[in-house]
Amino acid sequence: MSTPTIVLLCILAALLAGVAVIYFLGRKAQKKQAEQQEKLEAGKQTISMLIIDKKRMKLKDAGLPASVLSQAPKMMRNTKLPVIKAKVGPQILTFLCEEKIFDSVPVKKEVKAVISGLYVLGVKGLHGKAPVQPTKKKNFFRRALEAAQAKAGAKPLK
C-alpha cells in the first residue's frame, strides 16, 4: 500500500472513532436530561409571586443558598444564568429561570409561576396586560439582505 492510502485510512479510522464516541456520549447525556426533566415535572407546583428583578448573573453572585452552590459543578459557578428575584408571601427569594421563558417574565408584576424547587418552569401574568417585547434592531447584514431580497422580489427570510 502506498503512504497516502495508509494516511487516509488512519484519518478515516480516527474520524469514525470520534463519531462513535460523540454518539454514545450524546445518548448518555440525552438520557440524563430526560431523567432530570421527569424530576422537575414531578415536583412542580404553582405559586403566586411578585417579580422584583431579573438578570443574567453568575451562580456564585446570585445570592443562592450555600447548599445550592456546593452541589453545582465548578464550571457552572462561573457561567451566567437567568436569575429572578421575587417576593413570595413575606419572603424575598432568588430563583433560577428557564432560558426560553426568561425574556417573557415581566418585572414589577404579580404572576402565577410554575416552579420546581428554586427553578421557574413557566410564568403567566395575573394582573394587567402582558408587556410588549421591544423589537430587535437589525444589523447591517440583515438590512442589506432584506434590501437585496426586496429588489429581487424574493420572499424575506424569517
Q: How would you describe the overall organization of this protein?
A:
It is a single chain. This protein is of the alpha+beta class. The chain is 40% helix and 28% strand. A hairpin with a 2-residue loop joins strand 4 (110-116) and strand 5. The protein is flat. The N and C termini lie far apart (52 Å). The model has no long low-confidence stretch (mean pLDDT 87).
Descriptive keywords:
alpha+beta; 5 strands; OB fold (Dihydrolipoamide Acetyltransferase, E2P); five-stranded mixed barrel; 4 helices
CATH architecture of the domain at 40-125: Beta Barrel
- Point out poorly predicted stretches: none
Order of helices and strands: HEHEEHEEH
Helical fraction: 25-40%
Overall shape: flat
CATH topology of the domain at 40-125: OB fold (Dihydrolipoamide Acetyltransferase, E2P)
Distance between the termini: 52 Å
Strand order in space, largest sheet: 1-2-3-5-4
Radius of gyration: 24 Å
CATH class of the domain at 40-125: Mainly Beta
| Class by alpha and beta content | alpha+beta
The amount of beta strand, in percent, is: 25-35%
Task: Count the beta strands.
Answer: 5
